[in-house]
Write a structure and sequence with these properties.
With about 120 residues, the chain is an alpha+beta fold. It is about 20% helix and about 35% strand. Strands 1-2-3-5-4-6 form a six-stranded mixed β-sheet.
């Protein structure tokens, strides 16, 4: 399980050493799909790169402790890609709302990957 632990440590390091840009605050609508509303702040990590050539995506929840304890893996058939979306400081209810948001479209599905406590 050392690899599992190191993965999360590396992810913590990446997030904490780079600026988080919130470009879609809680309550804002998706730029292409106006019926989709963000339940928590959403943005990206500056100086990182994802499959879509943008920064790695991140949801920042309302928890005081901004711990990274989960991420979503998505499959998007429209873009033919896969991405991760980091969850930082999200409550259990926020995770459920994000899951519903990401699985709302017929062309995209997501699964939650939780950080194992060591």
């Amino acid at each position: 399980m050392e690899h599992n632990s190191l993965f999360w440590e590396y992810l913590d390091k990446m997030v904490h050493e780079n600026e988080i840009i919130i470009d879609r605050p809680k309550g804002s609508k998706h730029p292409k799909y106006s019926d989709m509303v963000y339940a928590v702040d959403y943005g990206y990590i500056k100086n990182t790169q994802s499959m879509d050539n943008g920064g790695i995506d991140i949801f920042v929840g309302s928890e005081v402790n901004k711990k990274i304890d989960a991420l979503f893996c998505t499959i998007d058939l429209k873009k033919n890609d896969s991405e991760i979306k980091i969850l930082m400081g999200c409550t259990k209810n926020e995770k459920i709302e994000i899951c519903n948001f990401l699985n709302n479209a017929e062309f995209m599905k997501a699964i939650l990957v939780k950080r194992l406590e060591t």
